[in-house]
Amino acid sequence: MKTLEWRRNELIILDQTKLPAEETYRRCTSWQDVKDAISVLAVRGAPAIGVAAAYGLVLGASELLRRKITDTAVFSAGLATVAAALDAARPTAVNLHWALTRMLKTAEKELAAGKSSAAITLALEREAVTLHAKDIEINRSISAYGAAAIIMQKGAKKLTVLTHCNAGALATADIGTALGVIRALHKRGLIERVYADETRPLLQGARLTVTELKADGIPVTLITDSTAGWIMKTGRVDAVIVGADRITANGDTANKIGTYSVSVLAKEHRIPFYVAAPVSTFDLSMARGEEIPIEERHHDEVRRLRDVQLALADTDVFNPAFDVTPHQNIEAIFTEKGTIEKPSETTVSAFFRT
Question: Does pTM top 0.70 for this prediction?
C-alpha cells in the first residue's frame, strides 16, 4: 500500500479512514482536495501530511495558471493564500508548516530570479518530489540510529516493545519513524513482540499499526489503551517507542492523545520511553510543550464509532487530538541526524549546534 503517489497534476492518497476494511484511494486534483484529505485524516502522520501539503501547493499553483494569472506578484500572493489554507488543516503537526515554508521559499527564489509563473510551478513540483524522496531517506536513517541506540543500551537480545498510535509507513513516505525502528530491530531478529495500543478515539493503533506489522510478519498483540499500565506492571515491556508531531526546544514532544499517559506509566515502571521523529518535527521557536497548539477535533469522533452511536448525541465531549510528553519522561529522541540522549534544553541546543 502506497500512502502517497504523485502523478502528473494529481495526488493519489490512500484513504486511511477506510482501513483495514477497504483499500481505497482518493484522487486529489485540486489543493482543496488535499486540504480535505488532511483534515479528515485520509492522510495523516506528520511527515506524510507535510509531503501531501507540498503537492497540494503544486496543485494550487497549477490552478492559478489555469486561471491565466501570469502576473508574478499576483501569482505569489495566490500561492501564499493556498499555503495558509493548507497550513490551517492541522495546527499541531509542525512538519506541515515546515514543508509549506520550504515550498514558498522555493517560489520566492524563482520569483527573485525573474522566472515566469509557469517556471515557478515547475520548480514547486520538483521541490515537492524532492521532499517526498527525502522523507524515504530520512525514515531509513532514523531507523538505523534508533536500532543502534537501543541495541547499545539493551544489548543484542529480543525485546518486547509497546507503541501508541501509528508512526509507520502509513504516516510517512516509507517505513516510518517509530515503526521504522521496530522494523530495523526485527530485521536483526531482535523483536519478540510488539504491543499496539488501540489508540482511541480513531483507533489508529488497531486499524493501522496492527495492519502494517502483520503484513511484515512482525509479532503484534493489540491491547486497549487502558491495558498498557498492567502490561508494564507485569514485566512484559522492555521499551516504548512512539512518533511525534512537534518537538520544542527543551525536548517536550506532542504526539497522539494518550502518549503522555504511556510516558508516565513507562517512567513509573522504569521502562525507557523513546521518540522517533525527523529534524523537521522540531520547532525551536517554542521553548516548551505548553506553547504547542493542541488541535481539538469533532465531538462525534468520541460519541460515535463510524455508524455506531456510543453515547447520547448531546453528550458533552472534550476531544483533543494530541497531548504533550515532558522531556523528563523521554530516554532519547531518534532523528535522521543522530540521537539526542536525555533530551533537554541543553542537549537539544547542543544537537542543533553540531
Answer: yes
Q: Are 4 and 12 a contacting pair, CB within 8 Å?
A: yes
Strands (E), 152-293: 159-163, 191-197, 220-223, 239-242, 246-248, 253-256, 273-276, 282-283
| Residue in the structure block whose three cell numbers are 469522533 | 301
Residue 46 to residue 211: CA distance in whole angstroms:
19
CA-derived radius of gyration, the chain:
20
- Long-range contact list for 20-28, CB < 8 A, 24+ apart? 20/207, 20/208, 20/210, 20/211, 28/55, 28/56, 28/59
Q: Is 260 helix (H, G, I), strand (E, B) or coil?
A: helix
Spatial CB neighbours of 83, under 8 Å, sequence gap ≥ 6: 57, 60, 100, 103, 104
Mean pLDDT of 83-99: 94
163 CB-side CA count, 13 A: 36
Q: Active-site residue numbers?
A: 245
DSSP 67-105: TT---HHHHHHHHHHHHHHHHTT-SS-HHHHHHHHHHHH
Per-residue pLDDT at 128? 97
What pLDDT band is residue 328 in, cutting at 50, 70 and 90? Answer: very high
Longest Cα pair distance anywhere in the chain, in angstroms? 66
Classify residue 20 by its DSSP letter.
Answer: T
CA count, 13 A, side-chain hemisphere, 80: 8
At 305, phi and psi to the nearest 5?
-125, 95
